[in-house]
Design a protein that fits this description.
The chain is mainly beta. It is 13% helix and 51% strand. It has a 5-stranded antiparallel sheet with strand order 1-2-3-4-5, with helices on one face. A hairpin with a 2-residue loop joins strand 1 and strand 2.
Length: 82
């Protein structure tokens, strides 16, 4: 399992995120902020399988203080494929 902190583009702006992926890169979970939608107490967890969208979940939390270990833990809770 690999994790990296990066950004992604949504509606023309760069948003911070963690990407947690399986060793073979077939599954990737993006953990990102929801500031522009819901405020600072929500996090989006989006799962992609073979590069295709599979699911999205909203959880409570503050992305600003999220660590790599917590990102891995969230990905394991949300995705049965990681």
């Amino acid at each position: 399992m690999k994790v990296r902190k990066t950004t992604y583009k949504v509606y023309g702006s760069e948003e911070p995120c963690f990407e947690v992926s399986s060793d073979d890169n077939s599954v990737m979970v993006r953990i990102s902020t929801c500031y522009h939608y819901l405020g600072s107490n929500s996090i989006y967890v989006t799962e992609y399988i073979d590069g295709e969208f599979n699911s999205i979940e909203e959880i409570r939390g503050d992305f600003k203080f999220l660590t790599e270990d917590e990102a891995i833990s969230i990905a394991k809770r949300i995705s049965v494929y990681i």
